[in-house]
Structures are given as C-alpha cells and as structure tokens.
Design brief:
The complex is a heterodimer of chains A (343) and B (305). Chain A has 343 residues and is of the alpha/beta class. Chain A is built from 10 helices and 12 strands. Helices cover 70% and strands 0% of the residues of chain B.
Chain lengths: 343, 305
C-alpha cells in the first residue's frame, strides 16, 4: 500500500499536492477580556497568545513547548477556531480561516484539521458508546451514504489505531487510559484530516503508554501523510517526535528552529534555561552541565512586562530590552528568534 | 485493503480475547444497583407504585361514587359501610381519596413536566451560550424567584378561574426557575469539557451538542429535581385547595378534602375525616422525596456502589 493511500480518497485536500506551507499563521493574537463588576465591563485582557507567527509545512511535525500558562494550548485552540482570535490571520491551505463563519468552516477546517486532547477521561462523552462517538461525525458531514459503509470505515479506523472492532458498543469508562487515547486519535482521524493538533496528547498517560501513543502517532503520520502540531511541556517527547520546535513564553513565540539546532545550540536565553532544566545522565568524569536558574516568577499574562516579555528574568537583559520588544526574525537559516542579542 | 497485517501497532490494543474479559455493563444497570442499596428509596418507590396504581384503577377500586351524598351518614366513623368514614356531606372518604389521588398526581406530574421542559431549555441556552443572553435570562429567573410564591399563586388563581388546567399552567410557568439554574450550572461546566470541544472541532452543530452531547450528561440532576418537584407541587396544590383556591368541589383532591375539615368541631369530633387525606399527602410527598434522594445517589458517579 502506498503511503499516500488514504481511507477516504474522495476528499479534496486543502493543501494540494505541493509540499509547501499547509498552515501559515500571521501575527495571531488571542486576548481574553477580563470583566469585572455587575456591568461586566472590560477592565483588561489576558494576552494568552500575542502576535505569534509561524508556518507549518505539509507532512512535518511542529512541536510547541513552554511552561504551564504560556499560551500553548490557547494557541492550538485558536488555530482550530475553538476560540475566535482577537487578531491576525490563519491561512490554512491558502484559505484564510480566521474570519469564516462556523457554517463555512465545515469543509475547509472541520474536516481537515482535528485535535487530540489531553485528558483521555474528559475528552470522550461518558454517555456515548465508541460506535456513536465515531459515527456522528460521518453522519453530520454526510460521508458515505449507508450505515454498512460507515461501519466498515469505523472498523478500519479502529484497527488502524490498534483497537479491536468488537469493542464498538463499549462505553469510554470501560477502557483504560491508553485505549481511550487511541479512541481520541480514532475520532481525530475519522474525517481523514490533513493536520492534527495534539494538545498534550500524551501528558496524562503513564510513561510506557506514552511511548506507545507516540509510536502510533508516528506510524499514522507516515501512513496518511499527516501534519502534526504537537503541543507539550515535555521537552523529551517533543524532541523525539518533532521536526521543528517552537518555544513559547508568556503568549509569545521566543524561538523557532529545526529540532537539532534548537536542542544542541539554543539561541534564546529562555530556551537555554528551559533546556538546562532537563535532567541528563552524565558519564563519569564528564563536565557537569551548568543549570541556568531563572530569577523571579512568571509575570502575569494580564500585565506582561514592557519591551521584551522575558527581560524581567533574563540573565543577559540589556537596557534596550526593557523598552523595545524584539522582533521575531530569522537569525540563521531556518532559525527564528525574538531576542535583541541576535540583531 | 487489510490494514492490521501490514503494520503491527505497538501494544495495548484490545484483542478479541481481551474483549470477552472486558466488563460491559449498561449504565442503567449500575444505577439500578445503586438505587436498590438505598432502603428508604426502595420503600418510597414501592409506595409510589401502589399510589399511582390506585389512582389509575380508582373507578374499579372505589366502593362508592365519590360525589354521592348520603346526608344521613354525614361524618360517619370508619366502619363496615364506610371503610375510612364519611365526610360532612356523607360522601365515602375512601372513594374520594382514590379519585383525589388522580387529581393530585395529575397536577403534580403535569406541572413538573411543564416546568422541567421550560427550565431545561432556558437553563441550557443560558449556560451554553453564556454572555449577555445568560445575564438577561438569569435576571428574569431572579425576578420570578423574588415574588412571594403563595401570594403570587393566590393572585393568579383569583384572576384566572381555578381549574385543573390553570393550576397546572401556573405551577409550570412559575416553577421552572430552580431547574433553569440547575441546568445552567451543569451546562456551564460541561460546555468547557474536552468532549464538547472535540464535538465542536468535528463541526457538530450547537443544537446537536446541547441536546445530544451535554443534556444526557446533565440528566441526573434534572430527574432528581423533577422527582422532588412533584412532591412540592402536590403539597402546593393541597395548600391552595385547602384555602379554597385550588381544585373546586365537587371534584375531590386531597387538598380540598381537608378544606371542609377546617371547622374545629369536625377536627375534634370526627378525627377520621381530616386524618386520611392529610396522611396521604404526607405519605406521597415523603415517598417522592425518598425516591429523589435515591436517584441522586444512583446518578452520582462519585458514589461508588
């Protein structure tokens, strides 16, 4: 079977045949208003995602890492339009999906971009059987005309993710965590999407199960030419699965590079400190790696620092950093960084 | 094309052998088991079963015509002719209790069905969409709740002719606020849950998400509040009828059977006359409350069986 063969070949692919950019995110902003008082007046906003730009090539895996609260999950959810972005553009296969109404999203986004969620207990409706969880999207989108075809397709998808089709009438609570995450993946695959956003998809699982799910995701990627955005706080998993990695801090993208250069030679001071926190097994006699410990706490995203958002904790902060926000630009071929050190 | 032969998926897949070992118990069976553990709830359910059965089969069970007056037998004590005595117009109390059960239960169930429907729809809309719509709807709820309910009922009953249907209408239109708040709360928490987000990313419409994804998960509290609500409405109807504002004689209801017993002479001299309708009201409301508590436990996933 050729890797290009898909389960639902009739579907028109938004990305076309070229291996160009499937997703082009330009200056995406997602600000949540803070409302107070009886009148619910807007008194401020949480800048969960602030001016983030990047592209995702067809067939690659883009990892997004960052601490809790840095906006990485919000980024994923705005990309798939669970939130209405405050500003910026999301070009998906060349179509601007930022301003499309829910009704128009159907064919462009809903069938071609899917999400795998973090918590396998919460992401499946406890009152629906596995069969109806997978059947509903097919019915809603009018894919295949009769029940038998749909059941065949569901059985195929279940086998693809490593579940026996006989479990189709079981309810989510009857499965283990790893099996539930497989169901979540099956649900994301059922409409045969091009891009899958995995939001902490393995974070809630045991380490041994994590490995299985990561392998499954990699297998599926090869087989269906999937494109992934893999959001996680786990630097090692991201390193394993990604082609390129973006680092977020306080709603902004700090650095975006190919995996090797980012992990071997991080440019941004934040990336350096983040990576130095990963424990490594040292050979006897080898030089002890220096651990960069950041001063202070993570500032509130409702009131981010002026200038570079990282300057309050940056060991290399310069006067310029306090007043002027660094642009996110290419510092070396394929390596983008937002830092005044690299101007 | 066969998919599994080509590529072995790394493990923990569910194989056919594992499947036979996998527990597959329908949710309602688990609930029934939890319910049966609550003794009071089971007693309440049996009582309700008997009372509802008696109401349905009243024409066959009643020994006499409930409106037939035999003035010579007025206030007859319980005995051979009148198993539970007779009232101040010489009507058979047992027959009137049986027919009265029909009225009281009908008012209870129909009013609650109406108020649950209104409350669920309004609560679901407020909770799911939130924002301005939610704020407006909840202020309406606050406004309705802030009316003193007995005063409101008395005013409305005097404006509209008191009949079974106006009573049901009034109870339904003013009784939905509690349900609306409850359902709104459930929806507020469920609309952010990952399975709802997943449904949205799959392009499933809001209507489908509300009714087919969220509502079944909020059904437990709704059923519990409905059960408790029926008891409440029966009590309210009895209260109104006792004051002469509810079901009008000669149609018997448990409340208006008590009405003519207001006279202290009757109260003291013919204790059997007010005792039996009062006891039926007490028993029925208690039974509904016990069953409601049992259902609450049965629907609560946090309570293990």
């Amino acid at each position: 079977m050729s890797p290009a063969k898909r389960l639902l070949p009739q579907q028109e692919k938004v990305g076309g045949e070229n291996r160009g950019n499937l997703l082009d995110v330009q200056h995406l902003k997602m600000h949540f208003p803070i409302r107070t008082g009886i009148l619910q007046r807007t008194t401020g906003s949480v800048k969960a995602v602030d001016d983030v730009s990047f592209t995702v090539k067809k067939g690659e895996t883009l990892g997004i890492v960052g601490e809790s609260g840095c906006g990485k999950s919000t980024l994923g959810r705005s990309l798939i339009r669970l939130y209405e972005p405050t500003g910026g553009k999301i070009l998906f296969g060349g179509t601007d999906v930022t301003t499309l109404k829910e009704r128009e999203l159907g064919l462009v986004l809903r069938r071609n971009m899917q999400m795998v969620f973090q918590d396998p207990n919460a992401s499946l409706n406890p009152r629906k059987s596995l069969g109806s969880i997978l059947m509903e999207p097919l019915r809603v989108h009018g894919i295949m005309s009769n029940k038998e075809d749909r059941m065949d397709h569901i059985a195929e998808i279940l086998q693809t993710v490593g579940l026996h089709p006989a479990v189709i009438n079981n309810y989510p609570h009857e499965f283990s965590g790893g099996q539930r995450q497989r169901i979540g993946i099956a649900r994301a695959l059922i409409l045969n999407p091009e891009l899958i956003i995995a939001d902490e998809a393995v974070s809630a699982l045991d380490v041994s199960i994590q490995a299985q799910i990561v392998n499954l995701l990699e297998d599926l990627q090869k087989r269906f030419e999937l494109t992934y955005i893999f959001i996680s706080h786990d630097l090692s998993v991201v390193r394993h699965i990604s082609d390129r990695v973006g680092v977020m801090y306080l709603g902004k993208l700090m650095e975006l590079s190919d995996k090797e250069s980012l992990y071997e030679e991080p440019l941004h001071p934040y990336t350096q400190s983040l990576l130095s926190a990963v424990p490594v097994i040292r050979k006897k006699g080898s030089i002890k790696r220096e651990r960069i410990i950041l001063e202070g706490d993570l500032p509130s995203p409702a009131d981010p620092p002026e200038g570079c958002v990282f300057h309050t904790r940056c060991p290399y902060a310069m006067p310029q950093c306090k007043s002027e926000a660094p642009l996110f630009r290419e510092a070396a071929p394929g390596r983008h960084v937002a830092c005044h050190l690299f101007n | 094309m066969t998919l599994t032969k080509e590529r072995r998926i790394p493990n923990e897949p569910v194989l056919a052998e594992d499947f036979s070992l996998m527990g597959h118990e329908a949710i309602w069976k688990v609930m029934l088991r939890k319910f049966m553990k609550n003794k009071l709830a089971v007693i309440g359910a049996v009582l309700l079963f008997v009372i509802i059965g008696a109401a349905i089969f009243a024409p066959w069970l009643a020994p006499k015509d409930p409106s037939q007056q035999v003035l010579l037998d007025k206030l007859a004590p319980p005995g051979k002719d009148y198993p539970l005595g007779a009232d101040n117009l010489g009507r058979d109390t047992l027959s009137r209790l049986l027919y009265g059960a029909r009225i009281s239960l009908l008012v209870g169930f129909a009013s609650v069905a109406g108020s649950i429907f209104i409350g669920t729809v309004i609560g679901a809309i407020a909770g799911y969409f939130g924002g301005m719509l939610d704020a407006v709807l909840m202020r309406v709820v606050d406004a309705i709740i802030s009316f003193p309910s007995l005063f409101l009922l008395i005013t409305l009953v005097t404006i509209f002719e008191p009949s079974i249907f106006t009573l049901i209408g009034i109870f339904a239109v003013f009784g939905w606020t509690g349900t609306a708040r409850l359902v709104r709360g459930e929806f507020l928490s469920l609309r952010k849950s990952e399975f709802v987000l997943a449904a949205r990313t799959l392009g499933i419409s809001n209507t489908r998400i509300i009714f087919s994804h969220i509502l079944p998960n909020a059904l437990g509290p709704i059923i519990v509040s409905a059960t408790l609500g029926v008891g409440g409405v029966i009590l309210a109807e009895a209260g109104l009828s006792y004051l002469g504002l509810g079901i009008q004689p000669p149609t018997p209801s448990w409340g208006n059977m008590l009405q003519s017993a207001q006279n202290p002479q009757i109260m003291l001299g013919a204790w059997w006359y007010p005792l039996f309708p009062g006891f039926m009201i007490l028993l029925t409301v208690l039974a509904f409350n016990f069953v409601g508590d049992g259902l609450r436990d049965a629907f609560d996933p946090k309570i293990d069986d």
